[in-house]
């Protein structure tokens, strides 16, 4: 007995029309293209740090929360501890950094800070933002950021050609404009997320779903 032919326009017909291709991660352009295009939107860690060459500011979209007790964040630069770039080198040297949250009003400055600059040129100045000393750690923070997390280095774990940097949040700065009743209000924080290529996404298209018991 043969299976019945699905009616045109039915859900079964739509499923039968799908073509799903399998393969190794590099079969879809590149592993980076596949991951950065599908794991979206990704929050952006705008990391400020200090090292022998001075203050540094750079964005990283491989970033997220790891734990709440103790409060721990993670960002992962494409660099190793044996050949670190500025942010990673600074974090390893001072065991400190600040994660600044990127909002819509700062997205152009964030993008400008990703430029490759000479060692003696400041990303803060190039991006048009103000460095201000952190309260608890040896690093600057972005004065214009609505939210900033001062972090002490917990660990740095090499994963292939990248390094997962873990930092415990020891102090936070939150603009009162994005709070309600003294608490952070998600609806007031217009954070920006990273997509793929040159694309970004805002957080103004929100919807709410009640979690099941």
Q: Sum up the overall morphology in one term.
A: globular
Biggest sheet features: 7 strands, antiparallel
Q: What structural class results from the helix and strand content?
A: alpha+beta
* Low-confidence region ranges: none
Share of helix, binned: 10-25%
Averaged pLDDT: 92
What's the end-to-end separation, in Å? 44 Å
Q: How many H/I helical runs? A: 5
Strand order of the largest sheet: 3-2-6-9-10-5-4
Number of distinct beta strands: 14
Order of helices and strands: HHEEEEEHEHHEEEEEEEE
Radius of gyration, rounded? 21 Å
What does this structure look like?
- The chain is of the alpha+beta class.
- It has 5 helices and 14 strands.
- The strands form 4 sheets. Strands 3-2-6-9-10-5-4 form a 7-stranded antiparallel sheet. A 3-stranded antiparallel sheet has the order 1-13-14, with no helix packed on it.
- The longest helix has 9 residues.
- It is globular and about 60 Å long.
């Amino acid at each position: 007995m043969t299976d019945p032919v699905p009616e045109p326009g039915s859900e079964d017909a739509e499923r039968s029309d799908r073509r799903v291709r399998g393969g190794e991660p590099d079969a879809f352009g590149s592993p980076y293209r596949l991951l950065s295009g599908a794991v979206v939107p990704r929050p952006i860690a705008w990391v400020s740090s200090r090292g022998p060459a001075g203050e540094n500011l750079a964005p990283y979209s491989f970033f997220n929360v790891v734990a709440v007790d103790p409060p721990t964040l993670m960002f992962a630069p494409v660099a190793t501890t044996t050949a670190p770039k500025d942010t990673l080198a600074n974090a390893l040297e001072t065991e400190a950094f600040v994660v600044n949250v990127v909002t819509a009003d700062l997205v152009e400055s964030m993008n400008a800070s990703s430029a490759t600059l000479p060692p003696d040129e400041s990303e803060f100045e190039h991006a048009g933002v103000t460095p201000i000393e952190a309260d608890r750690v040896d690093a600057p923070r972005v004065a214009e950021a609505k939210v900033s997390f001062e972090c002490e280095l917990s660990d740095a774990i090499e994963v292939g050609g990248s390094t997962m940097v873990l930092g415990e949040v020891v102090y936070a700065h939150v603009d009162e404009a994005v709070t309600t009743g003294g608490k952070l209000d998600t609806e007031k924080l217009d954070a920006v997320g990273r997509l793929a290529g040159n694309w970004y996404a805002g957080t103004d298209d929100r919807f709410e779903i009640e979690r099941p018991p």
